[in-house]
């Protein structure tokens, strides 16, 4: 266990050096090791992390499949804590668990080696009639506030997921060290949420909550965000801009989506390569479908045809010919058109600046993007949306 004072001192030094704080939600030892090697500041063990590793969605943590607290304790003690050295490990606590006495259990969490707690699964994610029924039975967010208060009393570091301004005030009063605005389940991938709030709305919601944190004079509250529409560094950059956010906690974006993409693309490449070695040919359909899907998942990054050709064990010219046969466009034409479509979609749905949307779809140089846009639409972005 790492002492609360040591964690606070380390995080504040990082912030004073103009760095953002990055935390990871994990559900397995391999995810933990990779997150640590990549330089995360802390990790949180959540039952949702394990369900994601099982190919299920994060909402599984809210159903009666097994006891969430027991699951986290088991993962922590078997897979995570034995690997931990200098990285704080926090326990995702289901505070409404009727089988646990909060004070005794949080004390046990500390004794086994966790450095703090986080309130998850949180009833703050539940709304409607089900939420009202839970409140009537005392299964409420108040229990999560109580858990943070107890952990603070036991000198554990605390990260509070909050969903509105009132909860932020209550968690600050309970002694939370981090106020993390939870935007809902993360979009993207095979088991991710299909809908989420817009990036603009996420930025505005978080700033209203962070304004409350900034009014606290007795101590510095660390302000972070989690989930929802944030799927890439560019999404996070948009939230950071004109916002006093100091860091990001990644769940699916760190341990589910990379795994999904990595396994899919690797196996697909081996599949095509293996078939090619056996048949000595490649069809335009198999290669085209693979690259089409690769572009859909990676269009915001730099994509080079030579890298794809190398992965498929064929020449650039052969890959180019197969791709053009499939789509009647060259690889570069297809990629540019796809990025332009995504740009238009972003501008219509997110109400952001032209250069921001261009950066999200893979263009750091807006002038270059504008030139490509005009080439394919016969209008500049400004003229296009004005019309």
UniProtKB/TrEMBL annotation:
Transmembrane spans: 20-46
Pfam families with a match to the protein in the record: HTH_18, PEP_hydrolase
Keyword terms of this UniProt record: Hydrolase, Membrane, Pyruvate, Transcription, Transcription regulation, Transmembrane, Transmembrane helix
Occurrences of domain HTH araC/xylS-type (ranges): 289-387
GO molecular function: DNA-binding transcription factor activity; hydrolase activity; sequence-specific DNA binding
InterPro entries found in the cross-reference section: Aldolase_TIM (IPR013785), Homeodomain-like_sf (IPR009057), HTH_AraC (IPR018060), Pyrv/PenolPyrv_kinase-like_dom (IPR015813), TIM-br_IGPS-like (IPR009215), Tobamovirus_resist_UPF0261 (IPR051353)
Domain of life: Bacteria
Descriptive protein name: Phosphoenolpyruvate hydrolase family protein
Lineage: Bacteria, Fusobacteriati, Fusobacteriota, Fusobacteriia, Fusobacteriales
């Amino acid at each position: 266990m790492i002492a609360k004072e040591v964690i606070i001192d380390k995080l504040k030094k990082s912030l004073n050096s103009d760095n953002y704080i990055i935390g990871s939600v994990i559900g397995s030892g391999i995810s933990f090791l990779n997150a640590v090697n990549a330089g995360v500041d802390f990790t949180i063990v959540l039952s949702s992390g394990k369900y994601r590793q099982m190919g299920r969605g994060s909402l599984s943590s809210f159903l009666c499949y097994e006891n969430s607290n027991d699951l986290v304790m088991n993962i922590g003690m078997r897979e995570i804590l034995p690997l931990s050295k200098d990285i704080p490990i926090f326990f995702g606590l289901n505070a409404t668990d009727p089988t646990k006495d909060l004070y005794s259990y949080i004390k046990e969490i500390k004794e086994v080696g966790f450095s703090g707690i986080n309130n998850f699964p949180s009833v703050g994610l539940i709304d409607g009639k089900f939420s009202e029924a839970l409140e009537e039975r005392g299964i409420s967010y108040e229990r999560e506030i109580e858990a943070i208060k107890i952990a603070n009393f036991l000198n554990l570091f605390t990260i509070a997921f909050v969903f509105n301004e009132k909860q932020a005030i209550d968690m600050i009063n309970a002694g939370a060290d981090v106020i993390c605005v939870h935007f809902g389940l993360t979009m993207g991938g095979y088991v991710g949420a299909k809908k989420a709030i817009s990036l603009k709305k996420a930025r505005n919601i978080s700033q209203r909550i962070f304004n409350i944190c900034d009014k606290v004079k007795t101590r510095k509250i660390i302000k972070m965000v989690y989930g929802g529409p944030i799927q890439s560094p560019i999404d996070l950059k948009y939230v950071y801009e004109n916002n006093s956010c100091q860091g990001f906690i990644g769940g699916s974006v760190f341990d589910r989506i990379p795994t999904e993409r990595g396994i899919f693309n690797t196996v697909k490449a081996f599949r095509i390569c293996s078939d090619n070695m056996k048949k000595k040919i490649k069809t335009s359909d198999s290669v085209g479908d693979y690259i089409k899907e690769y572009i859909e998942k990676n269009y915001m990054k730099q994509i080079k045809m030579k890298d794809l050709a190398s992965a498929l064990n064929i020449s650039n010219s052969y890959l180019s010919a197969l791709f053009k046969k499939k789509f009647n466009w060259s690889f570069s034409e297809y990629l540019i058109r796809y990025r332009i479509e995504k740009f238009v979609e972003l501008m219509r749905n997110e109400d952001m600046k032209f250069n921001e949307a261009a950066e999200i779809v893979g263009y750091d140089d807006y002038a270059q993007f504008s030139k490509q846009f005009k080439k394919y639409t016969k209008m500049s972005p400004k003229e296009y949306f004005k019309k």
